[in-house]
Amino acid sequence: ANAALCIALATVLSYVRLYKMPQGGSITLCSMAPIILAAHRNGLKWGLFTGFVHSLIQMLLGFKNVLYCTTFPAMVGCILLDYVIAFTALGLAAAVEKPFKNKLVGIGVGSVVVGLIRYLCSFLSGILIWSGYAPEDMPVWLYSLTYNGSYMIPEIIITAVAVVLLVKLLDVRQKKKQAA
């Protein structure tokens, strides 16, 4: 039930766009946070499952992007890099946070690392699939790095801060509840 609520919340938040890029991608109101929190709360296996289900929903909702691909291999690459791997990887936050003694540091680092994995997927997709959007006078890798970074870096920062604050707030609330 918790995973389903997190997937639903992440889906709704993906439509609350603070900034939308012209060729895809946007800065949202922490749409990655519910999946990262699900991983934090439920562990690696459930985190990956939650991320995977969320990836399928995002793919279905954004399937027109796949249809812009001109070849079958490009379509497969788009499905994997822009959706399945990118969003499933958010569930890895649970594994990344484990080695840290300070829980808030662990969740912050975990949020940043999985956000960077999603950025890496977008970067690779930009090079392998969407290179036609790059200006002729700019290397494709640089275009993909800057285009995808322009929305993913703020998204990662906003998400990491929000997740740390939410976990801290929930911990304070839990402690008050236990003390009462």
Write structural notes for this entry.
By secondary structure, this protein is mainly alpha-helical. It is 74% helix and 4% strand. The protein contains 8 helices and 2 strands, in the order αββααααααα. Strand 1 (17-20) and strand 2 (26-28) form a beta hairpin. Helix 1 (2-13) packs antiparallel against helix 2 (33-42), helix 2 (33-42) crosses helix 8 and helix 5 packs antiparallel against helix 7 (103-128).
Secondary structure: helix percent:
over 70%
Query: What overall form do the CA principal axes indicate?
Result: elongated
Low-confidence stretches: none
Count the E strands: 2
Q: Give a short account of the largest sheet.
A: 2 strands, antiparallel
Summed up, the helix count is 8
Largest sheet, spatial ordering of strands: 1-2
How much of the sequence lies in strands comes to under 5%
Distance between the termini: 27 Å
Mean pLDDT over all positions = 95
User: How do the SSEs run, as a string of H and E?
Assistant: HEEHHHHHHH
CA gyration radius, whole angstroms? 17 Å
Structural class call reads mainly alpha
